[in-house]
Amino acid sequence: MKRMITWMMCMMTTAVMMAQGVAFEPEGTTLEQASAKAKAENKLIFLDCYTQWCGPCKKMSKEVFPQEKVGEFMNPKFVSIKIDMESEYGAPLAKKLQIQAYPTFVIFNANAQEISRFLGYHATDAFIDVVKEKSADNTSSSLEQRWKNGDRDPQFLMEYLQTLTASYKGDEANDVAEAILEGKEETFSADSTLRTIFFRNINNPFAKSFVYTAQHPEALSAVTGEFPVKMKIQSVLSGFQRQIINEADGTATLDEDAFGRFLALLAVLGVENADHYRLSTLITLTEKQKNYDAYLNYIREYLSNPKLDADDMQLANWTKPFADPNADNTYKEQMKGILQKRVDEIKAGRRQAQRKVGNMMLSRPTDELLEMIISALDGKMPGQ
């Protein structure tokens, strides 16, 4: 009888879990804790990588995860967890997993080894279908082993690159792309397939194909035009720049070795605005460290460099640490002075106010927006 009651209680508990949709573990559950539970229950791990500001993430949580149908499929097979990728635990994990878009859903085996991943909002049936496909797909692991064993057959490399690209594994895809482009640095621009691989998969600024292209952009520009090449170079350099700052346990540190190698590379490449990358790295670092004396000094150094130019929206963005009403007034006053100097330059006709960002028209010119920010730093509402 006792055994029967226990069985019935388990069945009732399972029914409740299924009725409520996906049974996510309590907030704060780590990947390591999920792995321990998955091993004990012989399950896979499902990780929902989200942020507080992500609209599709909220839509998945509101419309898809609560569905009974989804719970019936997920709960018997997965230990499911949600992690805010901008939280103290989530930020370094996002960097480790190369999460760059939201929502990203990652499926692991019980040992927390990634099986596959997929992105974006999916309606109920589509979500179930893609989870079935991704959790049953072990192709990437076998291909990974062939790569580790030294297989460099051209057909295999193309197949493996396609799998990695579909799984959004950027660093691994870069490594395979480098192998494909090895020895073709001066000629790949003439091959449409190789050009696509370069633009889509190369993210390492030290890759031979990238170094050659950055030093000789005319070869690729002759085929694609200057703008895509310029944007690719900026994207790769900016992407590596973000990796130089390490975040863990609520602190931010600079990878001095990587930073030094990066600055040396910029010199070798002859990057015209190399100081942009140096100073913007240090501005980001000191903001994360809440070292606002250094933060403001680096901003001033950036603005005083005649080779660099921070637009009005960048100035506004740099104001964010002081938007808190409890922020130190000394820093607010210094930031107000920086903003006011820009407003004065616009009023005197030495600069033009921005009226759009990219293709988006602003509701008012940026000198008015900066004046509103100055008033907000004074604790005043617009119009006061």
Rg over alpha carbons: 25 Å
Note poorly predicted spans: 1-19
Oligomer: single chain
Query: What is the CATH topology descriptor of the largest domain?
Result: Glutaredoxin
Number-wise, the strands total 8
The overall average pLDDT, rounded, is: 89
Q: Going across the major beta sheet, what is the strand order?
A: 2-1-3-4
| Overall body shape | globular
CATH architecture heading of the largest domain: 3-Layer(aba) Sandwich
Main sheet? 4 strands, mixed
Order of helices and strands: HHEHHEHEEHHHHHHHHEEHHHHHEEH
CATH superfamily of the largest domain: Glutaredoxin
Q: Could you estimate the helical fraction of the residues in percent?
A: 55-70%
Structural class based on helices, strands and sheet pairing: alpha+beta
For this structure, what is the CATH class of the largest domain?
Answer: Alpha Beta
